Amino acid sequence: MSDYRIQGATGEWEVVIGLEVHAQVTSNAKLFSGSSTTFGAEPNTQVSLVDAAMPGMLPVPNAECIRQAVRTGMAIDAQINTWSRFDRKNYFYADLPQGYQISQLYHPLVGEGAIDISLDEKNPDASGKRIGVERIHVEQDAGKLMHDQHPTRSYVDLNRSGVALMEIVSRPDMASPAEAGAYLRKLRSILRYVGSCDGNMEEGSMRADVNVSVRKAGEPLGTRTETKNVNSVRFVMAAIEHEANRQVDVLESGGRIVQETRLFDPDKGVTRSMRSKEDAHDYRYFPDPDLLPLVLDDAFLEACRASLPELPDAKRRRYEAAGITPYNATVLTAEVESARWFDALLEAGAAAPQAANWTTSELFGALNRTGRGFADSPVTPVQAAELLALVADGTLSNSLAKQVFEIMLETGDGAIKVVEDRGLKQTSDTGAIDAAITAIIAANADKVADYRGGKDKLFGFFVGQTMKAMAGKANPGVVNERLKAMLDQG
After folding, report:
1. Against a cut of 0.85, is the pTM above it?
2. How far apart are CA 481 and CA 449, in angstroms?
3. How far apart are CA 353 and CA 322, in angstroms?
4. Which of 278, 329, 288, 267 lies closest to 118 in space, CA to CA?
5. Centroid of chain to Cα 86
6. Looking at CB atoms within 10 Å, which of 123, 233, 369, 403 has the fewest?
7. pLDDT digits over 55-101, tens only?
8. Burial class (CB in 10 A: 0-12, 13-18, 19+), 463
9. Alpha helices in 359-475 (DSSP H)
């Protein structure tokens, strides 16, 4: 799908990209304890004895975290492993109280799946690409080191210690920063539809480790680096751009790429070395002796599948089948909040194509202008359907509808109430329109003569003058019809 290449002194280079996305599971409790996962709490106020690794404390799996991970796997048509196992990943760091992380290396909960992406919103199916997902496993998060609280010491906040994460590991199927951005946005959209992760990257509940390598066309895969914990789509794309160009520069100058872990500096837009890349044997993985394998029965899997909502691609196809353009359908389904709002608008009786045009232009514009989202839109789907119905039956012209909508935004009133209170109903009264036209013709005899002499473009002038005289309330169709008849009489 992508023709992205880096032009080096020795020729073109391809970029090979894989993402490991850590998504915090939507749950009121941590993976192996009952501690809260609320964002923004005071440091070390959401830490149980299990999270702090006190002696004798044993982990107990949170069934909701397992359910959410399974539902996520089903949403990307992945293999669900009915038997999986937890492993200990051993390393020593100040924010890891146990001295190990409970993860899943050898037998993950979810196997292979795929996510379809597109770089063309106007024709998503024609320009699509399938990105493979290798696995999804569940694991616990570490705590957080805070280096800016004291001039000589680092503080440890264990609120995140034990928080449930899904690690979603892609295949190295992406070949450009744009593809990686599209993949991350699509994955975040699916997670939000499913409800398994809120996708708030700025809060750390979704972050990506970015694996990048470069090669000449047709050559084997190059040595990759991993840039850790990148927390926005824009930063992921920037990190890939910089890291790929850095690798090309190193290789073309006769150097070699070291397999290592790097960090991205968003202020400078560069990556820098953090440590040499560890392999699995460095972590001394072994099965966690305190946890039994997870065994999923058919009833659990059926309940998970039955709980899934209509997903973005299926919803987009349904919208297109209802006459909505591919572009509008893509925009409306990109985020679950807009899709739910629009579904409610259709359920309230609005015609699909007109409703889509209005939502993507008028409503999106108003929400952006006022800094609001669909969740706190001052106009409800029912009120919007009422407004669109008044346009459809001729009560309001498009220009009047814009006025009514602005008043609805300010007051929260319904469209009918605004029309009645402000006297904004469109008129098709030919007597009133004829009277206005007669006055305009009499006041513009020179332009009437020019029009009748062949200057057809002056017709627009007469339409504008008539609409102004009628305070914008005249039916444009009737105005055009009566103007043509009365101007042609001479």
Report:
1. yes
2. 19
3. 7
4. 329
5. 31
6. 369
7. 999 999 999 999 999 999 999 999 999 999 999 999 999 999 999 99
8. middle
9. 364-370, 381-392, 398-411, 415-422, 430-443, 445-452, 459-469
